[in-house]
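Researcher: Watch the backbone:
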Amino acid sequence: MTVISAIKNRRSYRGKYKPDSVSRENLTKIMEAGLAAPSGCNKQTTSLICVDDIEILRQIHAVIDPPIAKTAPALICVLTQRIPAYRDKCFAVQDYSAAIENMLLAIEELGYRSCWYEGHITDDDRICDKIADILNVPDGYELVCVLPVGIAEEEPVIPVKKDFEERAWFNSFMGN
């Protein structure tokens, strides 16, 4: 699979997963892809915890309300550190976003499905803090996203995208 085909075929998957486990080899490849992402001023603010232990997954799912990805055999938790970089600006959001997209593309290439769950777990109810407690995440790190990983039971819904010409131009803004 080429990078371009992975980009075009990747879909957010919110359905049920098959019970097949994801090998540690593939989970490592996925996390390595995430950590290979660029980071502002090379501060490398993104860290990852992969959970594939059934009991720990149960504990995490017990604190996620409403539930998500309960049948996924693995969950990659994305952590960030808010470290000042260039001119005291922090690029943590850009760093972890690049890491997440790299992982989503690796997940696609390896034949799995996932979904970027951030808002659901970082909302006012702070599910992210409850998950961080379960995983013994130390102070100074913030859990910002979870990515379920597994084989989809059904094909994901293909979203309708606007035409290229409505969102991209050459040399000047040409919108309506």
Notes: The chain has a mean pLDDT of 95. The first helix runs from residue 3 to 9. The longest strand covers residues 142-149. The chain has seven helices and three strands.
